[in-house]
Specification:
The chain is of the alpha/beta class. The protein folds into 2 domains: about 150 residues, VC0802-like (2-Layer Sandwich); about 170 residues, 3-Layer(aba) Sandwich (Rossmann fold), CATH 3.40.50. It has an 8-stranded mixed β-sheet with strand order 2-3-1-4-8-7-5-6. The protein has a 7-stranded mixed β-sheet with strand order 11-10-9-12-13-15-14. Strand 10, helix 9 and strand 11 form a beta-alpha-beta unit. Helix 2 runs parallel beside helix 8 and helix 3 runs parallel beside helix 4.
Length: about 375
């Protein structure tokens, strides 16, 4: 399929400019950041490339219809106007995701059912048979979004959300989503630092999502290579040749990048042995068990290895109320001391949902970025360690 298509990559709030920059770096055309994600254009292979290589996107959508939708009947008729038989077999399975903003239809479950009914009724009327519904692993996932009574109907090329890389079998107490961890690292400019041979250290690594994502970047490993399937895998419009070429290229880059990544550049520390074991298991499933060194150590004992300076990235716990978390204040103070004493000349990025706790670092941030950990408004604080 060589025709030029329009795509929309979704992401978490606050990540849109980073996502747009990433998509441009992937060589995609007509990239523009917008609320909730970024648009781009190209042949179907462009959508595949975003699915395979984007570390920041949540989903990659391929719009197939847009129509005015002020009522349930308009939704039904609009959905029936799409030639669904070109996208799905009668013996296939589908699922419909529905969301709306400032529209007459407000109930997501009702909207999804109405949209699904239109699709299966079209199959039944045209072909005498209908696909079945599978909300977990459908052959085709359809996304319907209403904004001010304007409907956009898309095919979800990602299937499962793209943050599910396939390597994480241990999550720790409060794990970051993989694409949020990647956003933190992009904001801290780790990809450019990695090219220059910098070190990466996480002194409170937990299950190690920041370190695994950082190692994948440093080793030039496509984050989607570990996934078993995508939303386009059983789509009737799937271009297997284009996808196979992209995967072959990614595997070549992976082999060269992993082989070239020195094992003394990326280090994780945690005082909890369970976290150390969890990170080691995740590294094994990511194929990076020999590339990241993990040590049981308290934050105040964290130190860099010999070599050029780099980036300390950390997501310390931040509790709910400062008054109830005096131990966390001491933890932040210990982190700040370790950074000042042991990491002069380094950069640091501290991600926290409690900016009051960050005052105990006793460091002056030179840049502050707002990101969201689910519903929690967080700050990513960037420091140059003097």
């Amino acid at each position: 399929m060589s025709e030029k298509l329009d795509f929309f990559a979704t992401c978490a709030k606050g990540v849109e400019p980073l996502l747009a920059a990433e998509l441009r770096a992937l060589g995609l055309d007509a990239v523009r950041d917008t609320r909730g994600g970024a648009t781009f254009a190209g042949p179907v292979a462009a959508g595949y490339r975003a699915c395979l290589w984007s570390r920041l996107a949540s989903r990659v959508l391929l719009p197939v219809a847009r129509f005015h939708c002020p009522s349930p009947l308009d939704l039904y008729e609009g959905m029936r106007s799409v030639k669904w038989w070109e996208h799905l077999d009668t013996d296939g399975t589908l699922a419909v995701d529905f969301s709306a903003s400032n529209s007459a239809i407000t109930h997501a479950h009702f909207g999804a059912l109405k949209a699904k009914d239109a699709i299966v009724d079209q199959f039944r009327d045209r072909l005498g048979r209908r696909p079945s519904v599978d909300t977990a692993l459908p052959d085709l996932r359809v996304n319907v979004y209403l904004e001010r009574d304007q409907a956009t109907v898309s095919l979800d090329l990602s299937g499962e959300a793209l943050h599910r890389r396939g390597y994480r079998v241990q999550g720790g107490k409060a794990p970051l989503k993989e694409n949020l961890a990647a956003a933190i690292l992009h904001s801290a400019r780790w990809p450019a630092m990695a090219v220059d041979g910098a070190q990466l250290v996480d002194p409170m690594c937990g299950a190690g999502t920041l370190l695994v994502e950082g190692a994948l970047m440093a080793a030039d490993v496509a984050p989607g290579l570990g996934r078993e399937r995508f939303g386009f895998s059983r789509w009737l419009g799937h271009d297997g040749q284009a996808w196979g070429a992209l995967v072959a290229e990614a595997r070549e880059r992976q082999a060269a990048g992993v082989a070239g990544l020195a094992p003394d550049r990326i280090h994780g520390y945690d005082r909890d042995m369970r976290s150390v074991n969890a990170l080691n298991e995740n590294l094994y499933h990511a194929g990076l068990e020999d590339k990241v060194r993990v040590t049981r150590r308290a934050v105040e004992d964290t130190e860099p290895q010999p070599g050029p300076p780099g980036l300390v990235v950390v997501n310390p716990p931040y509790g709910e109320r400062l008054g109830a978390d005096d131990d966390l204040a001491a933890l932040y103070a210990a982190l700040g001391t370790a950074l000042k004493v042991n990491f002069p000349g380094w950069r640091a990025a501290v991600f926290t949902g409690n900016p009051d706790l960050a005052h105990h670092l006793r460091l002056a941030a030179d840049r502050k970025v707002t990101l969201y950990n689910g519903p929690i408004v967080c700050r990513l604080l960037h420091y140059g360690i003097g």
